[in-house]
Amino acid sequence: MIETILTGKTPDIGEENIKKLMTMFPEVVTEGKVDFEKLRQVLGEYVDDSNERYNFTWNGKGRALRLSQTPSLGTLRPCKEESKNWDTTQNLYIEGDNLEVLKLLQKSYYGKIKMIYIDPPYNTGKDFVYRDDFHDSLENYKRITGQVDGNGKAISTNPETSGRYHTDWLNMMYPRLRLARNLLSDDGAIFISIDDNEVHNLRKICDEVFGEDNFLATITVNKASQIATENTVDMHEYVLIYLKNVESFKLGENYKFTISRGTVGNENQTTPKILFPKGLNCYNIEDGVYKTTRKVENSKENIINFGDIVVKDGKLAQDVILQARWRSSNDMRNFFNNNCQPTESKINGEIVEIYFENDRFVPQIKKRVREKFETLYSTNKRGSKYLENINLNYFEHPKDVLFIKYLIARGAYRDSIILDFFSGSATTAHAVMQLNAEDGGNRKFIMVQLPEPTDEKSEAYKAGYKNICEIGKERIRRAGEKIKEEYKDKGNIENLDIGFKVFKLDTSNIRKWQPDYDNLEQSLMDYVDNFVEGRTEFDVVYEIMLKYGLDLTYPVDEFTIAQKKVYSIGFGMLMICLADEITTDVAKGILVKIKELSPESSRVVFKDNGFKSDSNKTNIKEILKSGGIEEFITI
Length: 635
Known about the structure:
One of its GO terms (molecular function) is N-methyltransferase activity. This protein is α/β, with parallel strands linked by helices. The chain folds into 3 domains: 69-253 and 373-505, Rossmann fold, CATH 3.40.50; 256-368, no CATH class; 534-634. It has 18 helices and 28 strands. The longest helix has 19 residues, at 165-183.
């Protein structure tokens, strides 16, 4: 049995990178340090020693990089009262600075996100800009939500007169994109909306973070409303698409059927003979015996038949060999060899049927293909109409639900997790629910949004919405109910997930995970009571789940064992007891409950100062070990 002392830190990304380097080049790491001279020797000609090499840099880039690698000591506190369908939903809505939230999600959702969509600030000089503090992100977050900096100065704009117009924006985006990449699955993709102000810089930092080879496309999107200047009419913005791994990426499960003729006019194409088996459909062809096929003077697509072509009851009555310049002879043969069942084609999609359609007997190939991204999206509509329909129109430029659905349908599978960490009005959540209702999918969403206060003079504030998150959550509630009503006659709509669990960023619930370094004596005394004042065991349970890397949507059940409360996560895969005066009876009761729940493996967590005595702790550990518990964890 493994014994673990759980700390409050998220994964140290720098340390993780060192481990990866050790795996690839063990000789360059000694005592946890990288010998760069040896690494240069190992890499040989792949090291660029030139002072004048291509690179993209700006003031603060190094600090921004370090910021993305600095572990977080914060947590996400569950907020059941603001959630919807807490016990059953698989969706999350997280309030907090997305930099800290992305760090906190690293362990639970590393490599699990199929699609990320973000609509970050476009840096027009009017957007809210995240001012990251390189020393204490959580304290900085508290200042941001108050809309003032440490000196009480407003920080809601990024005017060009600041002298750091592009630099501030790059320092905001760079660490977030690095953390976001970790969350993507190998076949995942990120979609980023942007306009002309920063599209050039965004391409450069994405090339660095995701790799130039993983750039898929730029979609030019027609704006719902045009903006005229003295010299131009601004009609477009963009979506950049980058992949985690270009070789692993697959389009979503949004299909269409295409039909193409089986011959081509390419003079260099070979002309193999192919046996067309009996039973193929012959549409619009009368029953009978046909002596010839397509014969057009000087055509490169003529077909030679070896033997009669017999049609009976609308089908080919016997095998026939045909010769021509075929579009894809191997695909056709593979389909026939597969008994004319759906067969993967070489280039795109699967062949579902090959048939003849007229008495010239040119074969037609019907494919089912995944819908691709088009680099021009010209049907963009006004996103505010969706908010008007639910009486919640408090955003100036919300995205069009149809457009986000378009991206999700092509970028994610029907059971994927979709993350949006600049959630805004929660259009992405709306689109996920709408698409699930339409195609029966089970996509899940994670929305992350800074609770930026609304202007006290705004209609939103007057309506009772004190920050953006309150509007976003209400949109999901209303949109979900509206979608269910609209699709009530569709089968299985009752199972549509229109709920969400709310979590809010905060400092750790556990005192020793956030010591006061200016008053260590008091911090040591505080250890007598493990939890921060005002925090509940429920808060602590979810912090343990987060720091241990468990999905935040796993079910949490409560039991009483030997007069002590015990929490079971994921039907026994993790058992947590945060009580004091823990006895061996608790350990024995936990083993009984685990046997009843029958998880594949189980771990148990206790407070380090919750045992009645040291000997009691040792006995409990031995009881659990003999019961097959995989890991004994203390906090």
